[in-house]
Every structure is written in structure tokens, then in C-alpha cells.
Task: structure prediction
Amino acid sequence: MRVLRTPDERFDGLPGWPFEPRYVTVTDPVDGTELRVACVDEGPSDTDPILLMHGEPSWSYLYRTMIAGLVAAGHRVVAPDLIGFGRSDKPAERSDYTYARHVEWMTQWLEALDLQHVTLFCQDWGGLIGLRLVAARPDRFDRLVVANTFLPTGDRDPGDAFRMWRDFSQNVPEFSSSAVVAMGCVSALTDGALAAYDAPFPDQTYVAGARQFPTLVPASPDDPEAPANRAAWEELERFERPVLCAFSDSDPITAGADRAIRERIPGAAGQPHTTVTGGGHFLQEDCSDQLVEIVSGFIASTPEARQR
Result:
């Protein structure tokens, strides 16, 4: 596997991003290549962690305001960059990216940090991967906040909005992360934020993962990862620790996907599920203050999760 690494200077002076990266090395399960996963780990180390998982084609910069707000509220916050994104290593070939590999890479990362009593906040591919982590290691998670994501098995039509996005991602001549994030926001991004979303990708040789991700979403029953997601759902249907849905009101791609979370995961029963107003697909950009309040309030209201 040929691996690219974005030069560090690409990340110098990004607005709202004072955080130092930490690195964990994972091993690819197919060919043994070592890959470096970057993450932010802020706040008191003796408190239970909040794990913020991003999706496509963003990186942990998406959570910059939430990180600051949650740390100010006294929490430890851990935000990794998925392989292929942010400061993490980037396999050069699109064929290097599979759903199964992403789950394995992040499972190794989770276990290397030995995160326990985790509150997971997941959005977009952060949910497709994060919910698989929960299904595989439920003992590590105290509670979940699920936002603008889903765990597809290919048994339902993914919808026109998703198909349009997938077609766009495969056919646009130049893949621009900043343009994609901007299209998925209700609010306007500053020039500095746009530059930050482009920082991980000096040129088009670095965007193999961003290009490949939309094709990896199980969209038919015979998708290679459909059985694994069905198995994950079986585990999630036994997950009784608190689960909160916080989907935004202006995301056509994941609209309605919270229904399955609320109906199928026992821990979602009776929870104060909320619609986050004024948020697009990337609601972390549009509604970060609301999300800090939602996550902090949910943790405060469910302390019993630690004893379960």
C-alpha cells in the first residue's frame, strides 16, 4: 500500500484550531501496512471521554467549536481524523479504502487509547463507522448521541438525495472538500474555514478516500458490507444504555434516518430526542452551541449509564 502524508505546514495557523495532534499507529489487516491516525485529545484526562467522529469529506476541524465548548464545560474530548482525512495517513489508491478496513483501523485506534465510559457523538460516516464500533465493543460506551447519520444495510432505497451526492462525488472533475462542506451547511463559511477543509488535500492525489467513501455506503442488499451491518444492528438492538437522536432540520440526505435509531435501539426509548434547528448536513458548523448544550445536558441527565 502506498501511503501519502499531508505536510504539517498545511495545518499551520488554521482559524479556531489551537489543538496539538496526537498520533496512534494502526496496522492494516490486509497487507500489514502501518498507518498513522491523528487525533485531538483535550480536557482533563481523569474524566470520561466524549468521542467526536466526523464523516466525509471533513476532518476533526469540523468539531473545533464543540471541542472548545465541551472542554470549557469540564469534559475530556477526543476527536480522531479517519484514515484518508485530516492529519491522518492517506492510502493513495481508491481500492485501498473499504468499509471493513475503516472499521478495523478505528477499532485498533479505540483499543490503543483504551477509551472507556465513552460518550459517542457521531455524524455522517462517523456514524457508519462509530455505530459498528459500538456494536463490536458495547462495553466501552456509556451513551450515544447520533446526528445526521445511519447504519444502512442496503435493504431500503437510499433516496434521491444520496444518489445525487454519490453521482456528483464520482463525476466532479476536481473534488473540493471545502465546496462539499459549504454545500452541506446552512450558514456561510469563512475563507479561513474553507481553507482549513482543503488543508488535508494539497492536490487531487490525496483525495482517494474522499472520492471512494460515497461508493462504500451499502445501497443494495448484496453489498459486501450489508451482512456486517445487519449483524451490527442485532447487537445494537440489545444496547440498553442511553441513546439520543439530535438530527438537524435541513439535511435531505439523512432526514428520517433517526426513526430506525429510536425504534430499534432499546436505549433510545424515553430519551429527549431533539431536532436541531437551523442545521444542514454539517450541523456542527451551523449549530455548535446547541450541540454543546445537548451533549453536556445528556451526560448530566444520564449519570446512571456508568453503573449499567
